[in-house]
């Protein structure tokens, strides 16, 4: 049984389907590999840290400054946001069990629109996003700011993320970690840690 009493969830790729890998390239008429080769390396990171707005991101998106249908791309992204299978149910179980759940995500200001669409705030008490924090996971500052705001010691937090590098960084600060693969293995781990009852 873990000493964790708070669960801190990553959002993209853990709770919500990330449109970046399929829907963004498709909307641009490109493969994922073509998009990765053509994009400006730091533009998305700047957007996620809140250093540039959406318009600036679209201007800087491609190395060659090419024009594209920005409205169609944004529509494809928004349309792609959806709960990953089984995770919304787990959040409901945790809430009913009295476990505090919050979010910590790398994402731009689009997180506001995402929340409005899928209802993240219905399940997460606080949502800490890189565009507000000014720093991205796995930088320690993202976790430290979040822990300070919550007023919870690291050893009482279970951090759930689909990226190993982010989980390792959280564990390095004293948090418990779970690398998300799917809802089934997540729920089994939450049961093993005593946060949920076995079904």
How is the secondary structure organized here?
Elements: E1 6-9, H1 23-27, H2 32-38, H3 43-48, H4 54-60, H5 70-80, H6 87-96, E2 100-105, H7 110-118, E3 127-129, H8 130-133, H9 140-150, E4 157-161, H10 164-172, E5 176-179, H11 183-192
Parallel strand pairs: 1-2, 1-4, 2-3, 4-5
Write a concise keyword list for the protein shown above.
2 domains; 199 residues; alpha/beta; Rossmann fold; 45% helix
Task: Give a written overview of the molecule.
It is a single chain. This protein folds into 2 domains: 6-17 and 83-192, Rossmann fold; 23-80. With 199 residues, the protein is α/β, with parallel strands linked by helices. It is 45% helix and 11% strand. The mean pLDDT is 96. The longest helix is centred in the middle third of the chain and has 11 residues, at 70-80. It contains 11 helices and 5 strands. Strand 4 (157-161), helix 10 (164-172) and strand 5 form a beta-alpha-beta unit.
Describe the structure concisely for a colleague.
This protein is α/β, with parallel strands linked by helices and about 200 residues long. The protein folds into 2 domains: about 5-15 and about 85-190, 3-Layer(aba) Sandwich (Rossmann fold), CATH 3.40.50; about 25-80. The chain has helices at about 25, 30-40, 45-50, 55-60, 70-80, 85-95, 110-120, 130-135, 140-150, 165-170, 185-190, and strands spanning about 5-10, 100-105, 125-130, 155-160, 175-180.
Number of domains: 2
Order of helices and strands: EHHHHHHEHEHHEHEH
CATH architecture of the largest domain: 3-Layer(aba) Sandwich
What is the assigned CATH homologous superfamily of the largest domain?
Answer: HAD superfamily/HAD-like
First-last Cα distance: 17 Å
Which spans have pLDDT < 50 for at least 5 consecutive residues?
none
Radius of gyration: 17 Å
CATH-derived topology of the largest domain: Rossmann fold
Count the beta strands.
Answer: 5
Q: What's the overall geometry?
A: globular
Q: What structural class do the secondary elements suggest?
A: alpha/beta
Arithmetic mean pLDDT: 96
Number of helices: 11
Q: CATH class of the largest domain, please?
A: Alpha Beta
Give, in spatial order, the strands making up the sheet with the most strands. Answer: 3-2-1-4-5
Share in helix? 40-55%
Strand content: 5-15%
Largest sheet features: 5 strands, parallel
């Amino acid at each position: 049984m873990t000493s964790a009493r708070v669960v801190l969830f990553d959002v993209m790729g853990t709770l919500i389907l990330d449109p970046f890998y399929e829907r963004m390239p498709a909307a641009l008429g490109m493969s994922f590999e073509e998009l990765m080769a053509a994009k400006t390396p730091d533009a998305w990171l700047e957007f996620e840290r809140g250093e540039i707005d959406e318009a600036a991101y679209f201007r800087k998106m491609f190395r060659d400054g090419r024009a594209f249908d920005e409205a169609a791309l944004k529509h494809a992204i928004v349309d792609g946001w959806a709960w990953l299978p089984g995770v919304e149910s787990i959040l409901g179980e945790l809430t009913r069990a009295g476990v505090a759940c919050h979010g910590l995500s790398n994402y731009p200001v689009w997180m506001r629109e995402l929340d409005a669409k899928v209802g993240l705030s219905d399940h997460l008490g606080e949502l800490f996003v890189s565009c507000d924090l000014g720093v991205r996971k796995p930088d320690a500052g993202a976790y430290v700011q979040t822990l300070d705001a919550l007023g919870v010691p690291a050893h009482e937090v279970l951090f759930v993320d689909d990226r190993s590098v982010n989980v390792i960084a959280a564990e390095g600060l004293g948090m418990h970690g779970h690398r998300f693969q799917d809802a089934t293995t997540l729920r089994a781990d939450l049961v093993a840690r005593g946060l949920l009852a076995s079904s």
